[in-house]
């Protein structure tokens, strides 16, 4: 997954994310922490395409999210999340 120069605002006049870029290699897990109002939920909503960024691009396996069907995108993300949770659970004792 990659965010490349992503900017987003719930209104056009007030951006809450400004030129955010990061790359998460396949198979890695990302934890997002921060204070209330720190855009954690916004990033998740952008990843699930509940919103589209005003500028920049979000990619999954090098493919822009806007090129994917919503159902396929959401199934792929949820599948990865469930597999990650299963791996973490199998490492815990008892």
TrEMBL record:
Residues 17-77 form the ABC transporter domain. One of its GO terms (cellular component) is membrane. One of its GO terms (molecular function) is ATPase-coupled transmembrane transporter activity. Pfam families: ABC_tran. It comes from the Bacteria. This is ABC transporter domain-containing protein. It comes from Reticulibacter mediterranei.
